[in-house]
Fold:
Amino acid sequence: MSKFNRVRISGAPGPVKSLFRPTGRTHEGAPGFARDTKSELFLLAVSNMVGEQTFYERADDRDGRFRDLVREVAVDDVDWLTRMVGWLRDSAGMRSASVVAAAEGVAARLAADASGGNRALIRAALRRADEPGELLAYWRSRYGRTLPQPVKRGVADGARALYTERSLIKYDTGTVRFADVLELTHPRAADGRQGDLFRHAIDRRHGRGDDVPASLTMLRARAALLALPPRERRDLLTRPDAADILAAAGMTWESLAGWLGGPLTAAFWERIVPSMGYFALLRNLRNFDKAGVSDELAAGIAARLADPANVARSRVLPMRFLAAHRATGSLRWAWPLEQALNASLANVPALPGRTLILVDRSGSMFGRLSARSDLTSADAAAVFGTALALRAEHADLVQFGTHHEPIPFRRGDSVLTIVQRFANLGGTETAAAVRAHYRGHDRVVIVTDEQVWGTVRGREPTRSVPDRVPVYTWNLVGYRHGHGPSGTPTRHTFAGLSDAAFAMIPLIESARTTTWPF
Structure:
């Protein structure tokens, strides 16, 4: 073991802070470390799929805890909450949690007669054209039909920025439609064309939208396509300019499928693929194979998927590429998906020195990330742990549960291949895994839900690591009590399903930051 030739780490306190002594219990009965309000809210927010339960926490209890934390922070520090909501929506990709946080935060501030910042808090949660309606629907479900001025103005700001012809085609659904948002909040149109769009959205909501204004060229093109007799529609696909016609009409693959009313053939995909977005391509890889698309088209799709700039713009989370890889089972897509996954992990740093990475594979980690996904917290842990190991100068990658074992890998191995080597290891003996594998490493990273077993062996996991050596806990679920202290120069906790927090490790180690990632 080296005594002198070691990586020098200065260290700065991390933003997520806990008490230094346990005051509660984890869900498995081990001593639990409570965190301050902002820290608990942050860890919960980046993992909270609203309305869905986790392994240890009922959906109602989890949502109630989230609302209570938001309301407390909103009154104390609305600027911090607004920054977190914007980051939560943009970088963490948590749509529902950001909408709930904005609405509950403003409700709490209004109840406390706190003015200033409320309109901006609402606006921070609205990044996609269906979200103004989502926020109003949530507000109605919680606080009735009366809309306070800050809610009206924040939603109106969002509608003005987000409502376009294309968004009207794609997102004008649900209980609260575009027209409802417009009639309730009265946004001022940015120009004459958007004014025509607003009026048309209201007209068609009330059954009088047959005449599309001349300025709305995409909607007029779409109306012309919808007017074609069914027998003529499939013939359109044989035209050389079909892709351009469909794009000009804002046809998505879903709307085109319904319009044609038939099988999704290779010709169908040939015409619609050029106008498909990144996530739509990723979702349909198996359908492309099933239809027998040409190698030329597949090569074009693969190039778009693997392009780092496309990956960055899409903000698709790394686990989505793992899901696509599992769904296709096709060698045609394996390499572009690997490239895309690597691009999505661009913020994962190349850590110097020796790093011990422990990945929790206990039973509670195998709860699904959401009801609409087969991916689990265990999948996320394996992806991030593997990526960190592959980038590090030297890393030991270990999976742990009731027992623990190293995961073999070599530099240059595929993330998707290494992930298949992980297993379900039962319980959560974190401390035993740390003791067994820590050998003078420069840092320790634990990717986990922190719910360690309440046994004699299940003591505070970081005690086996000298105080001068940093330990980074990557929390993937956001339960109230953590497995150890955080907020000192060498004990840190991060959270979420994106790679952004990993980028803070070298900053903290050089004592350049003590701030949140927003």
